[in-house]
């Protein structure tokens, strides 16, 4: 059996490890346009801040491909897929045959057209290790950095750069930071913590234009504010890399459409990770859920279906664990909407808050800021869709834990 | 594989398991120095749930298919194929707490000492027998293989 | 009255160099002595509440705690001791009867410690218990005056019911209500494993313990708690409790707070109601009445089980015992003045009754003189503290010994004597679920079995040392004992010679 994977990040690793559980002998080939051994993408900001050494950037140990008997083709781009001949054509003219194919091409940052923005040498997006390596060459403790976008990528870039430069300005269209995963209440302490650490925010506004020829020297906002700029980081958003899939006849919306087993509409072609539009376990809707743990889980689910394993795929839903300068946050599910009740637990002394979003007697979302201990128990309630009325305690109770599941269920869990 | 199982009938919620867990994960392995001298203070790797009628200590279940390993963004969290232990390679851990988000037992402890890392029960691999089991004053913890898996 | 005339009995000493503020002491003290002071971050103790039970001392992982008797002193006074004075202060403050738990702590003479055991030398060789079999088994029950056999050697005489014990020990009566359900489970399981009996006390018997019936003595006390036909037939032996060594002449009282669901069911009384055992059985006002009750019980159990009568050791114990034997009892249990209790008025416990050693010797002697010694087995109680006490008791005439305080000490009791508060930190003398949990029956059973096994081995050693290989040969064998420092009267009552004679 020939398994071919286009992509070399979380979903690819999930697929490889899933395949090797049930098929020790089939051949696995990984094609990637990046040249690095699989690395942990979220770590690139830690790398810039000096918190992670280059050796520890790897997601799996150096012998990963060898131990799992994987043939690697790095620095190669897959340019087209022929579903009838079951072949993938590479940019060097060669082609690779497959029995089962996984498209795990992830997404690429998009740069919105901005007046004055050409291909200046100090403009970066922030997704790849190479981006971090490029930025690293240009910064020093006096550099001024401008980041466009206060989403996860933009803030992580700002967090990584603030301690090693002269300061970071962040521009964001929405009126708050992390607009996609936090509401106003939760966003406020996060913004404050970032501001205390050398980051200045310009919210509810966009950049009018950038000034500079070979290098961007200034960014000018719509209200006329001028921001000095040594390095410009665009963290506005990403788009799934669907071009080759679409050309091959795979059904694509914004991302590649996949079912519960990660199959596309084309036989023997699967997709996993940031490139997909999967089903949100909580809402039942299709959406792109571009998160590291979800990508791994999806890659593995695809593998199970490819080799006919009986292992389950639990499904994914949006969830995030992120921290900025010591302030930890965990979010999951949905944070508002019709028919949603909000339960709040607040620690008056520390200011930490836990907010729970309940719909139809089930937990459908949460935002925990500051006190994230044992959050996984709530994740369990969400994914198992446990009726809250069957619990022995309220979500906001101090002593909430496995004991809230009731004696029988608790006993079953702790005896596993 | 042998794991630590709590018997909630006998747990008194006294907290001695935490004291010995910290000590067995300290630098000096001395109970007084571990708690009074070492800085940062070693962190215990279990939670104790207390209630009106029932208490129990909760350690990592060393699941067969650990959710924390799947979720870990750096690959630091791994299941050792030989021993079955789920361990955190703290060198590579960056304290993002994605494992805390994933673990359905809430078994992971946040070690916010000098370097933020996820701390978890390692069945006292270095000590031979889990210290919590050894020192429970009421026989409420057992170290045995029940053939259970998750 | 806000001015306290007295002061705390105990001092809590904490070695700050060792304390790691783990708060285990605070969590484990039912009297709420210890607490973490949030302002200083250090542990503090309110010694006024301490009862010296040592729970915190035993659990402290760094052994940082010590409880000392408060050595604050009055002007030295051999008559007005510290305790005498403080007890007056207490009564002036409360107007109440002073209560206490466990046995008489006053320095009355301990006769066990004034008797010495013989050993063989030269003419009567000693026996090595590791090489020779030692018969420590005992049969309790009425023995016939004569045995008759047919010409083939088969026994013709019908034997009254007998109980076989593997060692001359049984666990004394401690009611469910005064001690916890877990303590009862441990006693029942240990008795079963050891081949001896335990006693329900006057608290009745919960259904879940019927499985240990073959090793259970079911007691019928003055309150008749839990007494019904099935109860009687489940036990191996029945015991009518006339008196108790710790509080002769008065009844018992279990406060309503301790009568929860389980106690209520076992005793057959409503939950929350006080359980009062009257001083006399209100249907026993003469020896004939006692005989009637004994035979009612035998009828109810079809004459298949021996009936024991338990009395406190008081002044005319010998005469009472003689009457009881003639009334048809198979076993007489005598409880000396050192016997333990869950709660008794302190003055009665400390001043009423006589030592078991003297009572035993006197009763055994009287029954022999009346030629009715064979009609009953004698079981003694009232602070049997070691295997040496057991050997001496048998030599004085006992068939077996009951152990109560020793058994509780074995499973964790620290003799703080505050059982009556119901806050026993060791899970023994309490009905609070969170405290009862502290007594894990698996652990407690093992401890009881260990204790009795250890005493068994020691008895073997002492028997072998005397050149005896069966308990039967020691029973009533006063020649094996010598007194030391006893006056002639005491020697006469005990029926032993002085050392050197």
Care to describe what's here?
The complex is a heterotrimer of chains A (416), B (150) and C (501). The radius of gyration of chain A is 23 Å and the shape is globular. Chain A is 22% helix and 28% strand. Chain A is of the alpha/beta class. The two termini of chain A are 36 Å apart. With 150 residues, chain B is of the alpha+beta class. Chain B folds into two domains: 84 residues, Alpha-Beta Plaits (2-Layer Sandwich); 58 residues, Alpha-Beta Plaits (2-Layer Sandwich), CATH 3.30.70.20. Chain B is built from five helices and eight strands. Chain C is globular. In chain C, the strands form seven sheets. An eight-stranded parallel β-barrel of chain C has the order 9-10-11-12-15-16-18-19, surrounded by five helices. Chain C has a three-stranded mixed sheet with strand order 6-20-21, with helices on one face. Chain C has two domains: 87 residues, Alpha-Beta Plaits; 304 residues, Aldolase class I (TIM Barrel). Classes of the chains: A alpha/beta (416), B alpha+beta (150), C alpha/beta (501). The interface between A and B is large, with 47 and 44 residues.
Biggest sheet statistics of chain B: 2 strands, antiparallel
Low-confidence stretches of chain A: none
- CATH first level of the largest domain in chain B: Alpha Beta
The number of helical segments of chain B is: 5
Summarize this, please?
The complex is a heterotrimer of chains A (416), B (150) and C (501). Chain A is built from 10 helices and 26 strands.
Distinctive features:
heterotrimer, A: 416 residues, alpha/beta, FAD/NAD(P)-binding domain, Enolase-like, domain 1, 3 domains, five-stranded parallel beta sheet, 10 helices, C: 501 residues, TIM Barrel, 2 domains, eight-stranded parallel barrel, three-stranded mixed beta sheet, 15% strand
Write the layout of secondary structure elements.
The complex is a heterotrimer of chains A (416), B (150) and C (501).
Chain A: E1 2-6, H1 10-22, E2 27-32, H2 44-48, H3 64-67, E3 70-74, E4 78-82, E5 87-90, E6 95-97, E7 100-103, E8 107-109, E9 123-125, H4 129-138, E10 145-148, H5 152-161, E11 168-172, H6 184-195, E12 199-203, E13 207-211, E14 218-221, E15 226-228, E16 231-234, E17 238-240, H7 243-247, E18 256-257, E19 269-271, E20 276-279, E21 286-287, H8 292-306, E22 319-324, E23 327-333, E24 341-346, E25 353-359, E26 362-369, H9 376-384, H10 407-414
Parallel strand pairs in A: 1-2, 1-7, 2-3, 7-19, 9-16, 10-11, 10-16, 11-12, 18-20
Antiparallel strand pairs in A: 4-5, 5-6, 8-17, 13-14, 14-15, 20-21, 22-23, 23-26, 24-25, 25-26
Chain B: E1 3-6, H1 16-24, H2 31-36, E2 47-49, E3 56-58, H3 67-71, E4 77-79, E5 86-88, H4 98-102, E6 109-111, E7 117-119, H5 131-135, E8 141-144
Antiparallel strand pairs in B: 1-8, 2-3, 4-5, 6-7
Chain C: E1 10-14, H1 24-28, E2 34-36, E3 43-45, H2 55-59, E4 65-69, H3 82-94, E5 99-100, E6 115-117, E7 138-140, E8 163-165, E9 169-173, H4 181-194, E10 198-199, E11 216-220, H5 229-234, E12 237-241, E13 252-254, H6 261-267, E14 275-277, H7 287-300, E15 307-312, H8 317-326, E16 331-335, E17 344-345, H9 346-351, H10 356-369, E18 377-381, H11 387-396, E19 400-403, H12 405-410, H13 433-436, H14 441-466, E20 481-483, H15 488-494, E21 497-498
Parallel strand pairs in C: 9-10, 9-19, 10-11, 11-12, 12-15, 15-16, 16-18, 18-19, 20-21
Antiparallel strand pairs in C: 1-4, 2-3, 5-17, 6-20, 7-8, 13-14
Helix pairs in contact in C: 4-14, 8-10, 11-14
